[in-house]
Design a protein that fits this description.
The protein is an alpha/beta fold. The chain has nine helices and seven strands, in the order E-H-E-H-E-H-E-H-E-E-H-E-H-H-H-H. It has helices spanning 26-45, 60-68, 81-95, 113-122, 160-169, 180-183, 189-197, 205-212, 215-225; strands at residues 2-10, 50-57, 72-74, 98-103, 128-133, 140-146, 175-176. The protein has a seven-stranded mixed β-sheet, with helices on both faces. Strand 5 and strand 6 (140-146) form a beta hairpin. Helix 1 (26-45) runs parallel beside helix 2 and helix 1 (26-45) packs antiparallel against helix 8 (205-212). The N and C termini lie far apart (55 Å). The model has no long low-confidence stretch (mean pLDDT 94).
Length: 227
């Protein structure tokens, strides 16, 4: 067996981030989703401890972007939701005899190579399961499984505790690692505001896009006016 691979599921970018429709146009949402994905791929590609990256997607723009970072593109499971896409990636890695899978979404633009490296270092010997929760301790922003299918993924609303239960049902005590960059996913308008208010640990394309497009100023002004 060899290597831990990153698996990144990506839905179609057209119509992406619908929960941001109250503050962003469809064009802005598509651009934001694309730029956030690039920030994630950039961080993953800088981590030498990863054996490679698999992007599960049927979107041609996402596939082209992932290809520029040397990622493998997998279409199987791409339209089966987040959990289905991750499971498709896990099945591929199992067939190839890979040691483990680290999966994360494409909407955590503050993720850094250091956080990924630290999470890998915290992971135990197989069989093992490590999880990085979302900032609200409800979602699951990254899970690390050795072997790749050791715990069935259960993504969706409030998936953090179901993932813990799933690991324990397999006789594995999960390791919980909290990292601010991995934990900062962007799904709702309030997430965008919180992202803008955080001191950037590393420069991101996402922050530059929000500032240069004027979205950042508009959202922060609206947030200040609501206080």
């Amino acid at each position: 067996m060899s290597g831990v691979w990153a698996v990144v599921p990506v839905k179609e970018l057209t119509g992406a981030k619908e929960r941001l429709a109250s503050c962003l146009t469809p064009e802005d949402r598509r651009a934001l989703a694309t730029i956030m994905l690039e920030d994630v791929l950039d961080a993953l590609s800088a981590v030498s401890q990863l054996a490679g990256i698999v992007v599960v997607t049927g979107d041609p723009v996402a596939a082209a972007l992932a290809g520029r970072y040397g990622a493998r593109i997998v279409a199987e499971g791409a339209r089966e939701g987040h959990t289905g896409a991750v499971m498709a990636g896990a099945r591929l890695l199992v067939r190839e005899g890979r040691a483990g899978m680290m999966t994360m979404p494409g909407d955590i633009p503050r993720v850094s190579p250091a956080e990924i490296t630290e999470t890998l270092a915290a992971h135990g010997s197989a069989p093992s399961f490590t999880i990085v929760p979302a900032h609200d301790d409800l979602g699951s922003n990254t899970i690390l499984c050795s072997p790749p299918d050791v715990v069935p993924p259960r993504f969706g609303e409030d998936s953090f505790f179901p993932h813990l239960d799933a690991a324990r049902s397999r006789g594995i005590e999960p390791r919980v690692v909290r990292r601010p960059g991995i934990g900062m996913d962007i799904d709702h308008p309030v997430d965008l505001v919180n992202f803008l208010k955080m001191s950037p640990s590393v420069p991101t394309r996402t922050l530059a896009f929000l500032e240069q497009s004027g979205i950042a100023a508009r959202l922060l002004t609206a947030d200040q006016g609501s206080r």
